Amino acid sequence: MGKLIFFLITVLFISIATKLYKGQWSWFIPEYNMLPEDKKKEYNKNKLCRAYSYCMIICALATFLLLLNEFFPSNILFAISCGLFVISMFFLIFWMLINNGGKK
Questions:
Q1: Within its chain, how far is the Cα of 57 from the centroid?
Q2: What is the mean pLDDT of residues 80-85?
Q3: Are 74 and 41 in contact (CB under 8 A)?
Q4: Over the stretch 89-98, which tens digit does the pLDDT of each residue have?
Q5: What is the Cα 14 distance to its own chain's centre?
Q6: C-beta atoms surrounding 88 within 10 Å
Q7: Which terminus of the chain has a lower count of CB atoms within 10 Å, N or C?
């Protein structure tokens, strides 16, 4: 059952990442969605969606490694997967700091 769940989560992350990369499905970005319409115009929606899509791709890779860990149990795969989750969050935080939160 765990293998199926990891597979479905990986597919979900990849599908969300591809839609975000194309600039669609921006409703997956909670900070952006809570802004009023006049404030949303200050942000570059495509740039913001691309950053989140990169984060989702890294998370998809991490869940794929967890899926591999189900077939080939290894502490190294688990550690790399956890590290990738942490790296994806740090990537997003640093990207927001460097690019002024995605503003134009």
A1: 6
A2: 93
A3: no
A4: 888 888 878 8
A5: 9
A6: 19
A7: N
Residue that is written with structure tokens 């740090």 in the block: 90
Q: What is the pLDDT of residue 13?
A: 93
Count, in order, helices (H) and strands (E) of the chain: 5, 0
Joined together, the tokens standing for residue 53 give 């899509």
What pLDDT, in 10s, does the model give residues 9-24?
999 999 999 999 998 8
pLDDT (tens digit, 9 = 90+) per residue, 24-57? 888 888 888 888 888 888 888 888 888 889 999 9
Q: Which amino acid is at 80?
A: I
Q: Which of 47, 43, 44, 40 is nearest to 21 (CA)?
A: 47
Quick one: which of 47, 59, 56, 57 has its CA closest to 95?
A: 47
Enumerate the β-bridge partners of residue 43. Answer: 103
